[in-house]
Amino acid sequence: MSKPRRPSGPPAQLTDRLFATERRPEDFRFDASVARVFPDMIRRSVPGYTTIIPMIEVITEQYAQAASNCYDLGCSLGASTLAMRHGIPYGDCTLTGVDNSSAMIERCEHYIALDDNPLPVSLRCEDILETELNNASVTTLNFTLQFVPPEKRTELLTRIAGATRPGGALILSEKIRFESVEEQEVQTRLHHEFKRANGYSDLEISQKRSAIEQVLIPETLAAHKQRLLSAGFDQVLVWYQCFNFVSMLAIRAD
Ligand SMILES: C[S@@+](CC[C@H](N)C(=O)[O-])C[C@H]1O[C@@H](n2cnc3c(N)ncnc32)[C@H](O)[C@@H]1O
Ligand SMILES: O=C(O)C(=O)C[C@]1(C(=O)O)C=C[C@@H](O)C=C1
């Protein structure tokens, strides 16, 4: 019998208007005002997000191993956590969601409780740089590494690779930048058109752009691939790309 597929994340009940009126320039933070509107914000801001979430379920099902640990690092409201929960085919796996925003974790608890899948989920409000990882089969960083300071990324990925069992995998989704100035210009314009098509105004697009400039640091695909391999993964592939947003799969050999 075919199993029911989940919708793509928590319901987007509240519309994101955080940048709709002129605000004083301030770095973007995952605070309570962002957590309230986050399902709407991320769907309207990240091309492919609504495809990536259900595919995390499909990929998790392929790479999860019996009696192993699965992690969702930077889980926000639990969209990726729930996708993993539904993909894990073994009752003896653990699933841990981690986020250092208390506003996100509080709301995430609510969404996890509403979901009727029996696999227990542990939620931790902590820095993913501090999270203890071991015996992992599937780990997800769905648009989270981009917020980790670049100089701390190698250490985190090396810890993840070291904690991953042979045959296990990391799902890494990121906003990327491009080596070529021309491509950067075209992909950025297309991303902004995507936002415009989703109802964001020029003011919202430009204020959000300034707010994330110092906190969301994109890197090139080549830099990601090279670092994942040197961190200890054996194979790295891109399974999804839309404009300047990609999702990679980093696999440890059997
Ligand atoms: C774009 S959101 C992730 C979206 C989520 N994975 C999903 O699929 O809906 C990034 C999240 O990472 C969290 N985050 C960023 N840096 C972190 C860190 N060092 N430790 C823990 N969480 C972090 C933020 O609080 C935010 O909730
Ligand atoms: O790049 C942008 O314009 C975004 O809004 C992207 C992005 C992300 O990739 O995480 C930034 C912050 C929010 O988490 C939602 C979306």
Topology:
Blueprint: H1 32-45, H2 49-63, E1 69-73, H3 79-87, E2 94-99, H4 102-114, E3 121-125, E4 136-142, H5 150-163, E5 164-175, H6 181-197, H7 202-212, H8 221-231, E6 235-242, E7 245-251
Parallel strand pairs: 1-2, 1-4, 2-3, 4-5
Antiparallel strand pairs: 5-7, 6-7
Helix pairs in contact: 2-3, 5-8
The structure holds S-adenosylmethionine and prephenic acid (PRE).
Prephenic acid binds next to helix 1 and helix 7.
Textual characterization of the structure:
The protein has 254 residues and is α/β, with parallel strands linked by helices. 41% of the residues lie in helices and 20% in strands. A 7-stranded mixed sheet has the order 3-2-1-4-5-7-6, sandwiched between helices. A hairpin with a 2-residue loop joins strand 6 (235-242) and strand 7. Helix 5 (150-163) packs across helix 8 (221-231). The radius of gyration is 18 Å and the shape is globular. It starts with 31 loop residues before the first helix and ends with a strand. 40% of the residues are buried. The chain binds S-adenosylmethionine and prephenic acid. Prephenic acid binds at residues 41-42, 45-46, 143, 175, 208, 212, 216. Residues 72-168 form the Methyltransferase domain.
